[in-house]
Amino acid sequence: MRSRRLAVAVVLAASVALTGCGRDSGGGQDEAKSVGAGKASGDITVWAMGTEGEKLAEFAKEFSTENPDAKVSVTAVPWDAAHQKIASAIAAKQTPDVSMIGTTWQGEFAKSGAFDPTPPDLIKKDDFFPGAWDTTIVDNTSYGVPWYVETRLIYYRKDMAAKAGFPDGPKTWDDLKAMAKGMKEKAGAKWGLNLQPGKTGSWQSVLPFAWSNGADVASATKLSFDTPEMTEALGYYQSFFKEGLSPTALPDGSLEPGFVKGEIGAFISGPWHMGIVEEQGGAGFKDKYAVAQMPMKKSSTSFIGGSNLAVFKDAKNRDGAWKFVQWLSKPEVQVKWYQAVKDLPAVQSAWNDSTLSGDTFLAAFGQQLKSAKAPPAITTWEQIAAAFDLEVEKLCKQNAEPAATAKAIQEKVSVIGTGS
């Protein structure tokens, strides 16, 4: 799994209070200003993390060719230093013009007053997947642009699913449970479905089931984790562990070989796992597995992640920065970026390109992105997520009652609040 997938864990350790640069205490919307016409010019400073930070400078040369009076300077920032570096730059008013921002950081930094509102004359909301666009919204105002996205699907062994009675994969909650049982009882799997049994990031695995059951767990002003819909989803998730269909402790590095060997019949993950299992499975393994949408209850909803691009209020070249962000948001540029880095496009029309639409697996991820969701961009989400993860671990490993788990989560997050 690539380094940016560890960003959530990094934030939990590195979260820093931003002082002296807060927004108006009245909580009013910032006014989005227009961007000047014509080509970009001047120096445009950019920070980016992980593989994106390593690849963007070379990729941006095409932008400079189209805008000969502009120069893009990219600083590659390690993920484990990024949050602190951005926070310090904001406090010192020494920010770059634009930076890559993890979606779970958006609320914290936007609330500090650091970001320039997204200019609607330049960036169009409807161009992006709704769930991705929502990660840029703080206090009803957009403070960034989705750059790339990812979502989660069910990976399953086709041969084992067929023996279990689901040759086309699961479609509903009942299907997923029955397929997992059949893979264990009829197809010889040790585990029918691998699920995360708590620990950092498990909220990303559990919340899709809650969302699919109609739970609205959080908004900018309200936290509702103890609803009947959430309790039912927690009970459903727990049942895979109680019935011996999912492991409570899977050794590090054993998921992919277990899937290849048929010891694990299915698991839930993002697009990066395609390359991993195909490499480990060797020639022909791509024909042995498939991916399916998240199972339907009231809806089929998955988690949407990725990273945004934000322009800072203290940017020295605001117009150039927004024009660079707009260029990175062009459908044809998003496709080229996918080809260079394998980041999935956040712009919906980019998925019409045969590079993505012509691949059955990628097309399935594109379909799921249409209904994928993310938690609201609130300043306290990392603390809320940490509290949630701890209770999920008790649910999966200690058989805590689902209703008690929902109540415990609600009690903890109510103390934390939304930061509004």
UniProtKB/TrEMBL annotation:
Key words of the record: Signal, Transport
Pfam families: SBP_bac_1
Gene Ontology biological-process entries: maltodextrin transmembrane transport; maltose transport
Signal peptide positions (record): 1-19
GO terms for MF: maltose binding
Protein family membership: Belongs to the bacterial solute-binding protein 1 family.
Protein's organism: Micromonospora rhizosphaerae
Gene Ontology cellular-component annotations: ATP-binding cassette (ABC) transporter complex, substrate-binding subunit-containing
Protein name per its UniProtKB record: Carbohydrate ABC transporter substrate-binding protein, CUT1 family
